[in-house]
Amino acid sequence: MAEVLLPVPPSAAAPWILDLNPDEPPARPWVLDLNPDPDERSRRSARAERDEIDAALRDQVEALVTHLRGGPNPALSTDTQLRYGTKGSLHVCVAGKEKGRITDFEAGGEKGMGPIDFIMAERMLPVGEALRWAADWLGLQPPPPTRPEVVDEGEPTDTSAWARQQWGEATSAAGTVAERYLVDHRGIALEAVERLVALDLIRFHPGHRASSKPGSRSWSAILFPIFDQAGELQAIQAVRLNPVTGRKITGTSKISNGPLAGHGLMLPGDGGVILAEGPENGISAWQETGRPVLIAFGGIVKVQDWPPAGAVVTVLADGDAVGSAAAKSRAKACDAMADRGVTVLVTDTPDGMDANKLLLDPAAGDLLALINHPLHWSDPAPVAEAAPTAWQPVDGDLSARIGALTKDTAANDPAAITAVLSEIAASRMDPIQQRGLLERVKRQTGMSVQVLEKGIKATRKQAIANREGFADICKRYVYVKATDCFWDRVTCEMVTLQSVRNHHWRDMPAGEGGPISPLEVMLQDPHHGCDRADSVTFLPRAPTIIEAPGGLRQLNMWTPPDVAAIAGDVTPLLDHLWYILDQDPAAVEFVLDYLAHLVQFPEIKMRKCVLIIGVPGIGKSIVYEWMMRLLGPKNCTPVEESDLRSQFNDWADGVQLIVVHELMAMEHKEVMNRLKNYITDPTIRINRKQLATYRYENRANFLMASNHRDAAQIEKGDRRYFIWHSKARPRPSTYYDALGAWFDNGGAEAMLHFLATRPLDRFNPFSPAPLTQAKAEIIEESRAGMDGYLHEAWETERAPFQHDLVTVNDVIDFMAKDKKISLSHKKVSLFLRSIGAELLGNKRLDGGRQQKVWAIRDQERWMEAPERAIALAYRSAWTLPDE
User: Fold this and answer.
1) Of the candidates 546, 657, 540, which has an alpha carbon nearest to the alpha carbon of residue 610?
2) pTM of the complete model
């Protein structure tokens, strides 16, 4: 069994043997010395211990990662680097000087981490616990537990000044682990987080410290500001996060700086105010209701003085045990508010739950229903009519009309009663406030509250039935079970339930406790509900809802185009294709057939694509843009190369044509393989942000253009790509203006008619794309990118490698200007290393320029040469060997 031995510091007077297990003889005793400087001894011992464990973990890194993540992906792994996950996003180096380095690209890491950091991220452990876990996994005797860090959980002595300093040092939470904490681990919608960022109500601190005391430990943290009622920042609360995963750390994770009593955080909204305990619960309620939320830090008692007399508040209680300290503190705060004339109602939260837990686990309870149907804390306090407050006041005219009611009114003027009930039904007040008004009506008229509540419900039902535009809102959306979201018929996009509710909340008729949720009506109302579908598809010329076998319903995302086919002159179209395809009849015929098939058979996916390469400005993409107009803009989408690299591919959802205007050098094989799948696979999996993934019938076709000859890596035997390298040069701007004028003035209709009537007897959408000269050349040049060409030039001593000395910039410039090939600095550097070139360092060359010079031949000689000799011998890539 391997052992870890803490070294004896040289200053120890005599070693003492510490037996950690007196009942059993230890495999190796720990050495405890009497160092006069125990802190220094502890630090040296800890460093040695960590180094020993780290080295052992690096030797067994494959077994470690496999233990924590499962086996590697053999299809993506190599002898020196193992890849884990279906996409290979976790890279583990198992050989060479970088052995043991782990890089998790899915978690946002790019620089890599060591095995101990990986254990901390995977198991969410602080460094001490991670070391003990690692020692146990390695079979080593674990080190003694270190003294835990003492963190002051109370109000720090630095109070508000330190809080303001920490808040000032923090940055935007957008794109940080603070955002990831809320979205990935707390279930908060990205839209809500983005609004909090815009309101500057959350920030990210990469090194938050509990106090200004020397040695105070720092952590990555999300910060929440805490204000007084005047809006002055008085405190902050920090939630400490794992800097890799964004999860809350184990142990002491929440630290407050500054005084909390009398201070809170108000989130803006419409309707009655909600009082919540803790930022995660408050943000959950804010997201679900759209109402203002006052967040208390340390219990509701901290903000019990905020609501003014006459206000109506909903206390969002945690499901604490009856008689617990938290429950008693909340009861004390509710009593204090009620004694001041505040109308208090409290949610009946399930035991052991809170608002955020309900948001994360809807099966445990409906958070929105919980908030909208609270319990009465005490009898309703009279609402101040003379001094309405900003906390949901009663309309003065309504109060006056209630005061004018009498028992005679109930008997002789029922329309007056109905008018008052209609006004109450249309208002957006908390249930407790409505109950108070009905009690007043009861006292005035003698009618029972039960009868009045029935009148309220009847009035609301009638309001729903008569509400103008409500049916149109429901007709606008289709609920899709597979994605748990809506399809918007107007924008032709998938939208989340939250966004629909937020957008149409004010359009809804009033219900108990506020407006009826749009989702309640759209998904549950049998008369006004929206249409539904089980899954999605894209099938041109079919209806929006397709009745599929087995009683299933499919949403068809295809949208009918609005261009009508009318016979006309298409000479500008033919001339332009003739121009950019170099007057090649076979190339023109193929492209026309491809375009015609898009028009005539939009439901049949072709297993090939068109890629036209040429210099900028010749109009390669003009015809592509015309096709997007003919097929319907909502059935087509332009994409950037970054979209092709992204893990999210919603751009491929619900489209017939994908246009890539500028395909760059695709050096990553993984991206090229992904593009192959999009071109040929009959089904693909759609991965949208914040939505569940789903299988989808792929009917997308590709038209691509590029300014770069090395835009694609093509293998021998490829069947997908029709590639044309245009020799055309840009024409005067008047030429392109005339093309646009033709298309906008009858050309679109004529082009559609021409393509719709073009014979396609000899065109097979599934056959291989024709092999062009440009494609053959690219296949030859695609041996590991451009390595084949570079190797040949180096071996035959041709430009840019005809001299012993080269610079990366000269190689890049030569290939771009002379060969029309774009290479990156990284690619050239990697090639030079692969052929054994030696980097001589920065040398001052002609004109006084300093450049990094490489020796590609006679390396030993040039490594010994002085800078002056190198500068005299250096020749640019354009000079001949004897010059």
Assistant:
1) 657
2) 0.45
